Please model this.
Amino acid sequence: MIETRNFRILRAVVLTFLSLWVAIPLYVVVSTSLKPLKDVSGLFQWIPREITLAPFIDIWSTVPLAKYFQNSLIITTCATAFSVTVAVLAAYAIARLPFRGKRPFSLVVLSTQMFPGILFLLPLYLIFTQIRNITGIQLQGSYLGLIITYMTFTLPFAIWMLTGYFASIPKELEEAAMIDGTGRMGALVRVILPVAKPGIIAVAVYSFISAWGEVLFASVLTNESTKTLSLGLKSYASESDVFWNQLMAASVVVSLPVLIGFILVQKHLVAGLSAGAVK
Model:
């Protein structure tokens, strides 16, 4: 297809508009985080009159941001690790092993992505309450409870994604390893997982991002000791005032782990998503 001059101009205009649509909100966040509070209380100024790093220092003392950061890191990392581990085993079984009910199981896993998360909130709350009444184990307000909750929406996508990726890997690779004396699990660990590294990284990044910024379940299933960053950011707004500069500074700090991680694994992420989608 030969690109015409009008098409190139239209493409440049559309891409410029989309870039500005994304960049302007980011500029507002960053510029506001570098202003003193008195400069953000009135009309917004595109060019800061005074630049200060004080908001990035004050965010740690105004609210217990370090505690919220620790909670989010523990919960999100554990939920991601468990989701990827279970998804690898489940997806490998679906892609390679014949068993009764494989197709209905795959459809059920995929169908969970069609429902909004709020539909699972009340059932999970009731289940956690029953577990507490029967066993005495307190899941609501605990790390474990939120980790299990996050797995309910990260695991189905991870299984579906990795199933397509494993199915795209030639069976001859693991068959050759098993002929040499390696068992099924040995072939999975030594042969399949290294080949499927881009897909696994893509699933891990998706699971981490989904859990890192989740608000709905965290607002109901946490308490003051397990509150996550997504809820902790609201603490910068009090009844009398809103620390807009600190809120924006905290938003920048909260976004850094995801941004850095995305940059480091961007190549594997694109390869993993495209391979799973094509299959």
Notes: The chain has a mean pLDDT of 84. The first helix runs from residue 5 to 33.
